[in-house]
Amino acid sequence: MINVTKTFLGDKEQFKQYIDRIYETGWLTNHGPLSEQLEERLKAFLGVRNIVLTSNGTLALQVAYQALGIKGSAITTPFSFVATSSSLYWEKIRPIFADIDPHTWNLDPARIEACIEPDTTAIVATHVFGNPCDVEAIQAIADRHGLKVIYDGAHAFGVRYKGSSVLGRGDVSTLSFHATKLFHTIEGGAIITSDDDLAARLRLLCNFGIADTDRIDGPGINSKLNEVSAAMGLCVLDHVPEIFAERAEIAQRYEMAFAGHLDMQKPQPFSERNYSYFPVALRDESHLLKSRTRLNQREINPRRYFYPSLDTLDYLQPQRPQWRSRALSQRVLCLPIYPGLPRRAQDQVVDTLLADLDTEHARPFASVREVADFALVPATERP
Ligand SMILES: *Cc1c(COP(=O)(O)O)cnc(C)c1O
């Protein structure tokens, strides 16, 4: 079975060496040497000032809200993974959904201001599929209304915007290092901020609020990253450049094949992509279901990220319906993309989706794959 992603496991021997060290030191968790090393290397790799490692990406969001004193309500996107809004709900912050931009699929800055209520204290936006939000427009609104900005950057590992990490934007950005993400630590996450005082407060909150052996500074939680996870992270980090390159190659092949036939996410200008996902928008839901069935018959398992639109969730009512998000969530299918995805599977994905279009519209797509392959050949080497 070809799934939407496959966890990158790195080099087993290298992982074993880290595990040997854990057995030597006996240090399994609580800010051990491997998590410290991972933190330093991630800071350098991502080019960010402070990074606080956490046990997962959901607690990273919750701890960030606590540290920033977010209360009342927050404006957020209905087109994201459920944790973006369930984390708010869990912290007793009421999510207010504002609709998305139909092209970038991110929270539409033009929709935010009308949604702000007297108790609103924050904007919580997701860089959907790694595509940076319109961070300048969002920051301008936040400044005008005295709101904090939290970016759910779970998909944005390594994404640069205007020459620097997009994770440096807003008051705080969070990452998820879950096994399904581009970079992972089995389970894990991180909180990123350029504010040193805030970073210290985040560290405190992640460790029960324990300031030192004899002092507890307020109500914290346990959201520490353990050493086995850190070891996995160190192994995966060594291969991130190849992971990026292989994903980009597959994405380029898909893009060429689907251009003009299927709707795709429009990249935010001045951004670089990490291709953590490859989403396409099919014509409508029935088309999506048909294509998914056809792919499943070929043992290919794409996923519907993100479905359903979060403004439809029972426990978050009442909400105003967010029609763009609802419409898009019915159409988007994320296709398999990961290092080592067999070329044959890529071709099958392309053929199946284009053949479905073919039967629906009776248009000749038979040669599109060849056209796509041709376009990948550098101009100088074409026949
Ligand atoms: C994966 C993900 C999360 C949650 O991260 P976990 O590490 O699984 O808790 C949050 N937001 C988005 C957008 C995600 O994709």
TrEMBL record:
GO terms for molecular function: transaminase activity. InterPro entries: DegT/StrS_aminotransferase, PyrdxlP-dep_Trfase, PyrdxlP-dep_Trfase_major. Keywords: Aminotransferase, Pyridoxal phosphate, Transferase. It comes from the Bacteria. SUPFAM superfamilies: PLP-dependent transferases. Belongs to the DegT/DnrJ/EryC1 family. This is DegT/DnrJ/EryC1/StrS family aminotransferase. It comes from Stutzerimonas tarimensis. The lineage of its organism: Bacteria, Pseudomonadati, Pseudomonadota, Gammaproteobacteria, Pseudomonadales.
